[in-house]
C-alpha cells in the first residue's frame, strides 16, 4: 500500500482504479435492474474525472444553477435538477442546462412551471415528495425529520396532479443498505402509489451505498426489478453521490508540531477537519487513519497515541485518539482514508489555511496533480 513518501504538502488523491471499480459496480446494477443511475454533484464534482465517468454513466444531478452549468458544460449532458428553492435569477440558467427540473413544493411548481415550459418545452418537471419515513439516524442529514423543509407529504397532494408533473422525487437515505431501501419503499408505495399511473418517472434519490463491501447488490436489483414489474410505466432513476467516490482515495497530510496538555498529545497537522474534512465534525464521522488504530478518547494518554489537530483557529478542530506503530515526529505523513466524497465539494478556505491540492493516481502509477491552490484563490473568494 502506497505511503506517498515523496509527498510533503497536503493533497487529496483519487485513485483511478478504485474509481473505475465503483463505476463498474454501479453500471452493472443499472444494467441488471433496468434503471438509470446518475452522479449527484453534491457528493462529488471533480470535473476533470468526467471523461472516465462518461464511459459508465450518461447523466448527472444538480442542486443549483452552478451545478447544472457544470453538468451541461463539462459532463456534456443536461442535468436532472432539484433545488429547495428556485429564484427568478437562477431559473433561466437551470432550464437551459437541465433535462429534468424537480420542484420542492406545489407553490414553487405553480410559480415557475409555465416559465420552464416557455423556455424549453422538452424539460420534464417533477415534484419532491416526503414519505415521512427515514432511517437516517443523524438529524443533520435526515430529510424526513419532523418539520422538514423538503418535499410534499401525501395529504397535501390533490387526487389529480397538476398538469405538467411528470415525476416524483424522493430522497430519504444516507449511506444506506438495500434492506433500508426495501423498508422505505413500503412507505413510499403506501403513501404515493395511487398517483403512479399519472407519472412517467420516479427518482429514488441518493444515499444508496451500493459500492460498500457489505451492500446486498442482488437484493437491490431484485427490489428494483420487482418495482418495475408493478409499475411498468415508470422510468426509475437513482442518484447516489457517495457510492461513486466511496473508498476511492485519501487525504495525505503531514505533522507540523506535537503539543501536550494534561497527558494528551496532539499532533498538529497541515490540514483542518473543519476546512477539509467537515463531515468528521458534522456527522460526526471517525475516519480511518492509515497505519493507526482508533481508540476511545479515555485511552488518549497511552503510548504512541495522539489526538489529531487541524491548523485552523477553531477550538474544536481536532479528533482522536489514534495509536500509531511508533512515536510521531514533525514531518511524518498522516494519511486519512476515504476522503474523496463530500470533502472536495465541501471544503472552505476559513482562516486562509493552506488548501490541499487535488491529484489523481493513474492506473499506470503516475500521480497527476489536477489542481493546486494559492493565495490568489483565497483572495478572490473575498473579491
Amino acid at each position: 500500500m502506497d505511503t506517498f513518501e515523496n509527498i510533503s504538502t497536503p493533497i487529496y488523491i483519487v485513485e483511478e482504479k478504485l474509481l473505475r471499480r465503483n463505476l463498474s459496480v454501479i453500471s452493472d446494477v443499472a444494467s441488471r435492474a433496468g434503471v438509470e443511475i446518475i452522479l449527484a454533484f453534491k457528493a462529488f464534482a471533480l470535473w476533470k474525472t468526467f471523461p472516465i465517468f462518461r464511459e459508465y454513466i450518461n447523466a448527472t444531478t444538480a442542486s443549483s444553477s452552478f451545478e447544472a452549468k457544470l453538468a451541461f458544460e463539462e459532463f456534456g449532458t443536461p442535468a436532472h435538477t432539484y433545488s429547495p428553492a428556485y429564484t427568478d435569477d437562477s431559473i433561466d440558467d437551470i432550464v437551459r442546462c437541465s433535462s429534468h427540473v424537480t420542484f420542492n413544493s406545489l407553490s414553487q411548481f405553480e410559480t415557475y412551471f409555465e416559465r420552464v415550459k416557455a423556455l424549453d418545452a422538452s424539460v420534464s418537471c417533477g415534484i419532491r415528495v416526503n414519505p415521512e419515513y427515514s432511517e437516517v439516524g443523524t438529524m443533520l442529514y435526515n430529510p424526513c425529520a419532523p418539520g422538514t423543509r423538503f418535499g410534499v407529504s401525501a395529504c397535501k397532494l390533490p387526487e389529480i396532479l397538476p398538469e405538467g408533473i411528470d415525476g416524483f422525487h424522493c430522497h430519504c437515505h444516507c449511506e444506506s443498505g438495500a434492506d433500508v431501501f426495501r423498508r422505505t419503499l413500503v412507505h413510499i408505495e403506501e403513501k404515493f402509489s395511487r398517483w403512479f399511473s399519472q407519472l412517467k418517472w420516479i427518482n429514488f434519490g441518493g444515499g444508496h451505498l451500493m459500492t460498500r463491501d457489505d451492500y446486498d447488490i442482488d437484493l437491490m436489483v431484485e427490489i428494483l426489478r420487482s418495482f418495475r414489474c408493478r409499475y411498468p410505466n415508470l422510468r426509475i432513476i437513482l442518484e447516489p453521490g457517495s457510492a461513486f467516490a466511496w473508498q476511492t482515495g485519501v487525504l495525505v497530510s503531514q505533522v507540523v508540531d506535537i503539543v501536550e496538555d494534561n497527558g494528551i498529545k496532539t499532533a498538529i497537522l497541515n490540514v483542518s477537519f473543519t476546512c477539509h474534512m467537515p463531515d468528521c465534525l458534522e456527522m460526526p464521522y471517525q475516519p480511518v487513519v492509515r497505519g493507526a488504530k482508533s481508540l476511545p478518547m479515555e485511552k488518549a494518554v497511552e503510548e504512541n497515541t495522539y489526538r489529531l489537530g487541524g491548523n485552523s483557529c477553531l477550538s474544536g478542530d481536532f479528533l482522536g485518539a489514534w495509536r500509531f506503530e511508533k512515536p510521531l515526529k514533525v514531518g511524518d505523513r498522516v494519511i486519512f482514508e476515504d476522503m474523496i466524497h463530500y470533502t472536495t465539494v465541501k471544503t472552505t478556505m476559513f482562516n486562509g489555511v493552506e488548501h490541499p491540492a487535488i491529484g489523481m493516481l493513474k492506473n499506470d502509477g503516475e500521480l497527476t496533480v489536477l489542481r493546486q491552490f494559492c493565495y490568489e484563490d483565497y483572495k478572490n473568494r473575498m473579491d
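The first strand starts at residue 11 and ends at 15. Residues 249-339+347-381 form a domain with the Lyase, Ornithine Decarboxylase; Chain A, domain 1 fold (CATH 2.40.37.10).
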